[in-house]
Amino acid sequence: GAGIILSSAYDYAKWVRAMIERNSSSSPISQEGYASLLGAHSIVLPTGVPPVETAPVTYGLGWMIHVYRGELIVEHTGAQPGFA
Q: b/e string for 52-79 if b means 16 or more Cβ within 10 A?
């Protein structure tokens, strides 16, 4: 991968499942770990993109975090400088 991640489709499937089922007792990541992963660590765009984004766009440990029409969006395009 662009972020120098060596993995397989199976590994990615486990990661996606862990992110979707983060409240599960079998999750490999603690609730504190999820809070850190999904928490804002820096501000990317302080005002959002009006009229649909009403909060700052932030960045947290690999994730872009913003609010779109009242819904929390946590995403990453998969792109890195020089890769897409």
A: ebebebbbbeebbbbbeeeeeeeeeeee
Place of tokens 């660590």: 41
Tally of residues, the chain = 84
> For the whole model, what pTM was predicted?
0.63
Give the pair of three-digit tokens for residue 72: 């929390």
Residue 77 DSSP label:
-
pLDDT tens, residue by residue, 15-68: 888 888 877 677 778 888 888 888 888 888 887 777 777 778 888 888 888 888
